């Protein structure tokens, strides 16, 4: 029998809250106080009594651990392998996708024999559909109202607006510390009377223990924001936005940068000229990568480019947080006499009340962004947070251990997924359609179900499914997954009869992406199924 989840994991649960053509640039997909003992000791008691009572983390943990475990679901063996629905097979034939490279599962959400059960025991790469597992675990273990906190402490003395000491900024894995919130955090520091920092700004990123990874290692496109790697102090997804606006009347193009970055000085405008856009943008990418900094081409900006809002991952990601924090501080008129560096908040300092505190959106809101828009780095932040709350440090090992124990508690001996980094941005992630289907059935019976289902893209309506052309808009909440050699679609489908089904469809291989029309055909087949249909056996 698998070991029960450690109570400490639950005891810490708290209530809370167009880009460059086909270059190496891409549009950024946006995507209660924390109750750890360390944070309690640091003067974090800012949560109201009513909020604390409403969250009831101890009661929630006790109730969860007291639940009997489900018997091992066996979706892959509840019925003999069924034939693939003819309309789905037609689409696979049209796309030249072999059924041997596809897994398909359709099963009632509340149990019963599968309607479609094709190669469901095969371990396959689900691409971003892996985010379903990470987000389901987060809603269950952290709770929908959990919030991340980024806090600032100071030491030394304050005299006439000058802090004769250091400023410490501690990151705890916040997935959405965007420009606006960084601005507010620096303003909060100024509201404490500080205008000049005589010492250093120290960034504490020790909450996560993740090895440095070349952001171009996955697909050789390091400037694509989806390749950003996790960080305990993740500022604006490690990405900046370059805004270029042509002004024909003045024969120039205005230039803006968000967030402001220390050491990056851009001209307020560029001369405007005729010419093709692509070569200028290509040179921007090449020069930026070469210098590991944002470098604008010396050539005039082509008017044919029009307004460009380019969201790019920083070419030196390890420098992004220091540059963004220092850049924002100085942009607000603050002065820094020392340097900005990494380091830990001293224990004595951590015991004081922080002078600034930025609370993230809630887990429910973060899960919504992750699943609707398939934000990779946010998913990895959440995954590592599971490990942080489980063992005190967020690492791939601790996160996988926490998720494994949650899976065994909720799903018994159902074969485990190989979650890797929690986002699906991996060549090695694996899960069977049977296991994923069993998890989706189980989530349907958990308190976090409404938030989980609401986070999934709605076919023909929003998220990554907003451009789906279907006559059945709104009938399916499904997560998409796409890699070069993997395609997947999984979630919940409401039939015209009012019954809801779990659907899992995955394809692996060189032609995997061509299977997406077949997956949509499966969705529409489910919607039009009569109640009594149970599939035909082969």
Give me the secondary-structure topology.
Blueprint: H1 7-11, H2 37-41, H3 49-55, H4 57-66, H5 86-95, E1 102-108, E2 116-118, E3 123-124, H6 131-141, E4 149-154, E5 157-159, E6 162-164, E7 167-170, H7 179-191, E8 196-197, E9 201-204, E10 239-247, E11 252-258, E12 269-273, H8 277-291, E13 301-302, E14 308-313, H9 320-331, E15 335-336, E16 340-342, H10 347-350, E17 356-359, H11 363-373, H12 376-391, H13 396-411, E18 431-432, H14 433-443, H15 449-455, E19 476-483, E20 486-494, E21 500-508, H16 516-527
Parallel strand pairs: 6-8, 7-9, 8-15, 9-16, 12-13
Antiparallel strand pairs: 1-2, 1-21, 3-18, 4-7, 4-17, 5-6, 10-11, 10-14, 11-12, 19-20, 20-21
Helix pairs in contact: 5-16, 6-11, 6-12, 11-15, 12-13
Account of the 3D structure:
- The protein is of the alpha+beta class and 538 residues long.
- It has 16 helices and 21 strands.
- It has helices at residues 7-11, 37-41, 49-55, 57-66, 86-95, 131-141, 179-191, 277-291, 320-331, 347-350, 363-373, 376-391, 396-411, 433-443, 449-455, 516-527; strands at 102-108, 116-118, 123-124, 149-154, 157-159, 162-164, 167-170, 196-197, 201-204, 239-247, 252-258, 269-273, 301-302, 308-313, 335-336, 340-342, 356-359, 431-432, 476-483, 486-494, 500-508.
- The strands form 5 sheets. A 5-stranded antiparallel β-sheet has the order 2-1-21-20-19, sandwiched between helices. A 5-stranded mixed β-sheet has the order 16-9-7-4-17, with helices on one face.
- The two termini are 36 Å apart.
């Amino acid at each position: 029998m698998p070991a029960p989840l450690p109570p400490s994991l639950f005891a810490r649960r708290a209530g809370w809250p167009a880009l460059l053509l086909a270059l190496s640039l891409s549009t950024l997909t946006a995507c209660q106080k924390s109750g750890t003992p360390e944070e309690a000791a640091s003067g974090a008691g800012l949560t109201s009594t009513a909020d604390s009572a409403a969250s009831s983390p101890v009661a929630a943990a006790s109730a969860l651990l007291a639940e009997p475990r489900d018997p091992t679901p066996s979706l892959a063996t509840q019925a003999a392998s069924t034939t693939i629905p003819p309309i789905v097979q037609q689409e696979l034939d049209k796309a030249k996708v072999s059924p041997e490279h596809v897994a398909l599962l359709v099963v009632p959400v509340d149990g019963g024999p599968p309607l479609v059960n094709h190669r469901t025991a095969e371990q396959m790469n689900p691409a971003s559909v892996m985010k379903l597992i990470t987000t389901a675990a987060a809603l269950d273990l952290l709770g929908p109202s959990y919030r991340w906190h980024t806090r600032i402490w100071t030491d030394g003395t304050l005299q006439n607006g000058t802090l004769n000491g250091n400023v410490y900024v501690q990151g705890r894995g916040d997935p959405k510390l965007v420009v606006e919130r960084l601005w507010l955090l620096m303003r909060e520091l100024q509201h404490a009377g500080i205008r000049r920092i005589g010492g250093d700004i120290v960034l504490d990123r020790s909450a996560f223990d993740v090895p440095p990874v070349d952001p171009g290692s996955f697909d050789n496109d390091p400037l694509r924001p989806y390749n950003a790697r996790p960080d305990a102090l993740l500022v604006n997804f490690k990405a900046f936005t370059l805004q270029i606006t042509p002004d024909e009347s003045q024969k120039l193009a205005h230039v803006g940068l968000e967030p402001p970055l220390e050491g990056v000085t851009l001209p307020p405008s560029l001369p405007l000229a005729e010419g093709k856009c692509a070569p200028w943008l290509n040179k921007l990418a090449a020069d930026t990568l070469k210098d590991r900094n944002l470098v604008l081409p010396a050539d005039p900006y082509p008017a044919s480019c029009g307004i460009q809002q380019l969201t790019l991952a920083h070419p030196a990601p390890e420098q992004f947080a220091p540059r963004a924090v220092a850049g924002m501080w100085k942009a607000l008129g603050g002065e820094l006499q020392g340097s900005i560096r990494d380091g830990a908040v001293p224990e004595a300092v951590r015991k004081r009340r922080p002078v600034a505190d930025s609370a993230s959106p809630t887990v429910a809101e973060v899960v919504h962004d992750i699943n609707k828009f398939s934000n990779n780095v946010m998913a990895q932040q959440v995954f590592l947070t599971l490990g942080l709350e489980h063992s005190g440090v967020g690492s791939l090992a601790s996160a996988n251990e926490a998720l494994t124990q949650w899976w065994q508690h909720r799903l018994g001996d159902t074969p485990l997924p190989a979650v890797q980094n929690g986002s699906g941005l991996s060549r090695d992630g694996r899960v069977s359609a049977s296991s994923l289907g069993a998890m989706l059935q189980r989530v349907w019976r958990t308190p976090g179900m409404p938030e989980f289902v609401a986070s999934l893209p709605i076919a023909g309506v929003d998220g990554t499914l907003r451009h789906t052309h279907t006559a059945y808009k709104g009938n399916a909440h499904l997560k998409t997954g796409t890699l070069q050699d993997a395609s997947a679609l999984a979630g919940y489908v409401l039939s015209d009869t009012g019954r809801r089904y779990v659907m899992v469809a995955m394809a692996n291989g060189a032609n995997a992406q061509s299977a997406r029309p077949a997956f949509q055909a499966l969705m529409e087949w489910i919607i039009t199924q009569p109640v009594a249909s149970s599939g035909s056996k082969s």
